[in-house]
Amino acid sequence: MSTDISKAVMGVSAGIDAIKKLGDLAVKTQNLELREGILNLREQLLEAKDALLDAKEQVSNYKEENATLKARITELEQRLADGQEEIKLTVKKGGYYKEDGDGPYCTGCYDNNQKLIRVNDVGPIWRCPVCKSVVTKT
Ligand SMILES: [Zn+2]
Q1: pLDDT value of residue 1
Q2: Which end of the chain is flanked by fewer CB atoms within 10 Å, N or C?
Q3: Which keywords label this protein (predicted)?
Q4: Which bin fits 30, alpha (ψ -120 to 50), beta or left (φ > 0)?
Q5: Cβ < 5 A residues, ion ligand 1
Q6: What is d(CA 58, CA 9) in angstroms, rounded to the nearest whole number?
Q7: For each of the chain's 138 residues, which pLDDT tens digit applies?
Q8: Measured in angstroms, how far is the CA atom of residue 115 from the centroid of ligand 1?
Q9: Looking at 85, 106, 122, which one is the last position of a domain?
Q10: How many angstroms separate the alpha carbon of residue 94 from the centre of ligand 1?
């Protein structure tokens, strides 16, 4: 992408050089109307070159930002994976419990989506508020 922009900048720069020579020629031949037209064209080319250089810098900034974000995503994914490995669950009476005894959590939700969903205690059963599965406390 930025090499395409570099090529465009080089092309426009070459055009600016070429138009300058034409401007000199117009002065030599005293064609003032032609000279004015050439000066206008040169002005437009200079503006186009500035715009391209701005775009090139913007692309460069986006690339840098993109690399930073990619690194951040990798870091967060790693942290997430580490966090999931640390959770040790045991099954008691049809529900998952953490090592510190916290629970119960829905086994279906965790096994399917690695989500710890606290089940509702409804008398003799537990009901998951997300997947609505019902487990009889046994
Ligand atoms: Zn569930």
Answers
A1: 54
A2: C
A3: Coiled coil
A4: left
A5: 106, 108-109, 117, 128, 130-131
A6: 14
A7: 567 899 999 999 999 999 999 999 999 999 999 999 999 999 999 999 999 999 999 999 999 999 999 999 999 998 888 776 667 899 998 899 998 999 999 999 999 988 999 999 998 899 999 999 999 887
A8: 9
A9: 85
A10: 12
State which residues form the domain around 15: 2-85
Q: Do 37 and 74 reside in the same domain of the chain?
A: yes
For 135, phi then psi, to 5°, come to -125, 130
What angle do the packed helices 32-86 and 2-28 form, to 10 degrees?
Answer: 170
Domains held by the chain: number: 2
Measured in angstroms, how far is the CA atom of residue 123 from the centroid of ligand 1?
Answer: 18
- In a shared domain, residues 25 and 77: yes
Domain match, 61 and 98 both: no
Same domain, 77 and 92: no
Q: How far does residue 128's CA lie from ligand 1's centre (Å)?
A: 5
Report phi then psi at 92, rounded to 5: -135, 130
Which pLDDT score, from 0 to 100, does residue 93 have? 87
| Same domain flag for 80 and 15 | yes
- Tokens of residue 49, six digits: 């070159």
